[in-house]
Structure to design on (335 residues):
């Protein structure tokens, strides 16, 4: 609504025209607009008054001139409270601000390194559709479980089946949020361009391992699933002492492929997605026959997460066709 001042006297007379319009907001009453001047009330033009009366409303109240700076405020309607902003109840506003901060906080993910290349490729697309950023802790599943048991917390866990079962048993995963994302095979690799040895049968694999100058697989002591499995497999094949004598372990959470392309070893064994993270190598294939090993990767929302909805959104995103295509490219078999 627009107000028009109607001069009643020339400047300097006792009834000088008003010089301002003010509004008073009363917190506990409907909004009222009070028109006032520094030396007298404002008047409405006849058409404004008639317009309001035709619509069933009363003319705007033109009494109670507002105070100048330093003067007491004119009393409002009975029961009205016109507290300064500093005294108003802002609990609801604070709650909305807190909710917004939760929406924009970092989503902390504890993830096994086997899915690192796929997840890193998908992170930008997920962050572009959410008010959050991913802060990922990468390591082997046993190390992540150890850290979580020591008191660390996150929003989303991506672990192998054994690690997730441990966390579920500890009560650290929200009921109903556990989802299988993908699986991968343990594979052998050689340097790109090197002769391709035969690993198609149990006997062929044994001969290839024996013929290699040096090999690399994950240190079982570090807890990697492929390392633990392969160490046990060497015992089953009866060649553990011979092969371990020429084994070079990568650093914890490291990549065997790095030792392969640098020339330190002739063969590298690890999860296929981990091998593919290193350029300059070729995958020979998975272990043959009944020696074949597949690891399943499972996601679940951590029970202490302040934003389980966002974490579930990430799980849903990782199960889309777009994510499945990236997983295949990185050596994973999507669920």
């Amino acid at each position: 609504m627009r107000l028009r001042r109607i001069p009643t006297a020339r400047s300097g007379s006792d009834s000088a025209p008003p010089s301002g319009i003010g509004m008073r907001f009363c917190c506990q009453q409907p909004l009222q607009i009070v028109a006032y001047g520094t030396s007298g009330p404002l008047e409405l033009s006849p058409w404004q008054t008639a317009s309001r009366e035709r619509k069933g409303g009363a003319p705007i109240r033109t009494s109670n001139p507002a105070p100048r700076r330093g003067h007491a405020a004119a009393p409002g309607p009975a029961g009205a409270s016109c507290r300064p902003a500093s005294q108003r109840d802002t609990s609801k506003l604070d709650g909305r601000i807190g909710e917004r901060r939760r929406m924009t906080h970092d989503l902390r993910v504890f993830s096994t390194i086997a899915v690192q290349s796929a997840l890193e490729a998908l992170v930008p697309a997920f962050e572009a559709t959410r008010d959050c950023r991913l802060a990922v802790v990468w390591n082997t599943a046993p190390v992540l479980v150890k850290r979580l048991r020591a008191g660390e917390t996150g929003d989303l866990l991506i672990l192998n089946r054994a690690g997730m079962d441990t966390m579920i048993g500890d009560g650290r995963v929200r009921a109903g949020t556990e989802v299988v994302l993908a699986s991968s095979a343990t594979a052998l690799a050689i340097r790109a361009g090197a002769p391709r040895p035969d690993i198609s049968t149990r006997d062929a694999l044994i001969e290839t391992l024996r013929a290699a100058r040096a090999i690399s697989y994950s240190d079982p002591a570090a807890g990697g699933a492929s390392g633990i499995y392969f160490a046990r497999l060497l015992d089953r094949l009866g060649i553990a002492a011979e092969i371990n004598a020429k084994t070079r372990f990568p650093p914890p959470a490291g990549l065997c492929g790095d030792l392969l392309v640098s020339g330190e070893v002739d063969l590298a064994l690890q999860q296929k997605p981990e091998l593919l993270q290193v350029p300059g190598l070729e995958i020979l294939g998975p272990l043959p026959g009944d020696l074949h090993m597949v690891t399943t990767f499972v996601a679940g929302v951590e029970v202490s997460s302040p934003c389980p909805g966002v974490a579930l959104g990430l799980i849903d995103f990782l199960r889309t066709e777009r994510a499945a295509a990236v997983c295949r490219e990185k050596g994973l078999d999507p669920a």
In short: The CA atoms of residues 144 and 150 lie 10 Å apart. The longest strand covers residues 179-191. Residues 1-71 form one domain. Confidence is low (pLDDT under 50) at residues 1-55, 57-103.
